[in-house]
Design a protein that fits this description.
By secondary structure, the protein is mostly helical. The protein has helices at about 5-15, 20-40, 45-50, 60-75, 90-100. The mean pLDDT is about 90.
Length: about 100
């Protein structure tokens, strides 16, 4: 299950329907990668806990984390990126709220 569809990613990135198809493909790839990364940080797949039959809906905060991370990666994709960059503001806090903690 995809947490954020292409239309939501486009809106977050400020892209319109006349954006080049190569940008839309890249944005979708960043969305898929962002969801995968968020799920790895959470310690579970989002669709295992939310959004399925008998499960609560996907929290808007988790969707926001995926959207922010995907668009941040989309906007900052140059090869000469600063190695000291961290996750976009708020993403880590959102993940920590929903993370599967084990001790």
């Amino acid at each position: 299950m995809t947490v954020a569809d292409l239309q939501e990613l486009m809106a977050q990135a400020g892209l319109t329907g006349d954006a080049p198809s190569s940008d839309l493909l890249l944005l979708q790839q960043k969305g898929d990668a962002a969801q995968n990364h968020i799920e790895r940080l959470l310690g579970y797949r989002i669709d295992a806990m939310f959004g399925g039959p008998g499960l609560p809906p996907v929290p808007e905060a988790l969707k926001e984390a995926v959207l922010q991370l995907a668009c941040w990666w989309f906007e900052n994709r140059e090869a000469a990126a600063d190695r000291e960059r961290h996750l976009p503001f708020g993403v880590k806090d959102i993940v920590n709220e929903y993370r599967g903690w084990t001790f």
